[in-house]
Every structure is written in C-alpha cells, then in structure tokens.
Design a protein that fits this description.
The protein has helices at residues 31-66, 140-144, 150-162, 191-203, 272-286, and strands spanning 126-127, 167-174, 180-187, 217-219, 233-239, 246-255, 258-267. By secondary structure, it is α+β, with helices and mostly antiparallel strands. The chain has a seven-stranded antiparallel beta sheet, with helices on both faces. A hairpin with a 5-residue loop joins strand 2 (167-174) and strand 3. The radius of gyration is 34 Å and the shape is globular.
Amino acid sequence: MTEQPQTLVPAPPTEPPAAPAVSEAVADSGPPVRKDRRVLRAALRWTAVVVVLAVAGAGTAYGITRMERTDVPGLATASDGRWDYPELTKPPLPAGSPGPQAESNPAGTHHADLRALLLPAPAGAEENKALRGEDGWLATDDFLEEYAEEDDRDTFRQELVDAGLRHIAARGWTTEDGTRTRIYLLRFDTAAVVEGSFFKPHFSYTSAYSVKGAESVDNDESFPVKSEVAGVQRSAQVETEPYGEEQDRQAYLAAGDVLAVVLQSRKGTAPAVPFRQTVVLQSQLLG
C-alpha cells in the first residue's frame, strides 16, 4: 500500500527530545517491515517444500502398501526367518483368457501354464530334481508317496481318477538349515470338483490322509487370518508334540481348478515363519 506523503515541520532550536521508549523487538515503519516480509516469504516457501515432500512421501508409502506382496523387491528379511525368494510375477494368460477369479470364468480355470504357477525355490536352496517329473509333469504315484498308509494311497489314487485329475506339477527344495519343502499343484476340470471332492471333505480342518513322518497333526490356528489371499481357501496344519526326528507342517489350498499341497519338514522343529511365507506366496500365484 502506498504511503501518503507527510508534511515535515522544522523543530524549534532546542535540545532534541528523548527517544521514545520502545522495545528492541519492535521497529519503526521503515526497512524492518520489509525484512519481516522477506522472512515471512522464506518461511512460506520452506513450508510449501515441506508439504510437497510430505505429500510425495505419503504417496510413495501408499503405493508400496497397496502393492501385492510379490511385487515388492526384497520381500525376505533375515531378521524374522523369512527366506529370500526372487521377485515373483504371475505368468501371462493366453490372449483373451480370463483369470481364475473372473466372473466370466465360473469354473475357476487357470489358463496359464500350471508349471509356471509353481513357487520358485528361495536363494541358496538345493532343488529336488526328482519332483520335476517328465516335461514338468509328475506321476500320480510319485505324489502319493508323501502319504504313509498304503490304504490311504489307494483310496486317494482312486478319488483322483474319479475326479478327473488332469495334471500334477511339483517343485521341491532343501534349504541350508535342512528344511525340506515340497509343493504339488493338482489340476482338475472345475473349482467345484476341487472344493466338493477334496478340500471340504478331506482337508478343510486336518488332512484325512497321514503324511509320512507326521504322527499327530492338528489345525494350525496360529496362522494369521489376515494373510489369507482372496479367492483361495486355506487349511494349515502342524505336527504336534511329541513328534519324531522331524516336525512336519502342511497346507492345502483350494484355488479355482487347482488343489495345492504344501509340505515342509525339518529335523528337530520346523519354523513357522518360512512355512507361512511359502504358503502365502504360493497362494498369491494361484489367486
């Protein structure tokens, strides 16, 4: 605002009056006002910078928290026992094919190559090449060798035949601490077959068929519910004490037209963290 000109009257020839008593923090209406304005403008500029950085930081954090677990590099950490898995991506679908959870796919068909839906081994693990099978397809009897009782194997085999089992893809490995992991993906014609013929009647709480080495198995109620993957039903079980030389953990997943079996064993005790990590990541690949 433009200041109005003032009329100056000469002072009488006497001693100048004493200076008014004012605080040092308060200046006259001259240059100090411009200084305060410069300080104010600088403060506003820094405030704007801080706000922009805060918004940018919040956007980055939001983007990461919204990303799927498999999309975040460096997922595994050594601090809590998780394994160092490679960055995961789902295999591409054939052109025009819907995903297993699409409304246009009521059968829950996985149109991607089943072998490409297997979770890869973590860093430093030694792969069990015997589970590769022929051209990546495992024989049914090789899968059934995981079960202890011959009667159970015979019954399970017949159920698989009656339900129209199409393929079994498998992968296994052993980590440096001696933990043995085996993953089997069994593919059928529809999700209804997987859920109605196998998951609900045989695996929804504990397995109807005893895995070798697992004497007494109970539902693992400590498995975090919040880790469930949409569209994938899960049943996790753990061998209870007293157990033998090894402890076993197992999970069964119903994901569309695929029944997944995840088995993990280790001498002494089988840690819960890498097992749960493995189950969740395999669920995400199938979901």
